[in-house]
């Protein structure tokens, strides 16, 4: 949704990647 800024989305995506083992 547009409620999240791109920075918030980026941070959430980074956390998801990290929790999956990261790349």
Structure description:
The protein is mainly alpha-helical. The chain has one helix spanning 6-19. The N and C termini lie far apart (26 Å).
The gist of it:
Helix content is 61%, strand content 0%. It has 23 residues and is mainly alpha-helical. The radius of gyration is 10 Å and the shape is elongated.
Outline the fold blueprint:
Blueprint: H1 6-19
Q: Report the principal-axis shape.
A: elongated
Please describe the biggest sheet, giving its number of strands, its sense, and whether it closes into a barrel.
none
Order of helices and strands: H
Give the helix tally.
Answer: 1
What is the first-to-last residue Cα distance? 26 Å
Low-confidence stretches: none
Number of strands: 0
Percentage of residues in helical conformation: 55-70%
Biased composition (Basic and acidic residues): 1-14
Region (Disordered): 1-23
Sum up the structure in keywords.
elongated, 0% strand, 1 helix, mainly alpha, 23 residues
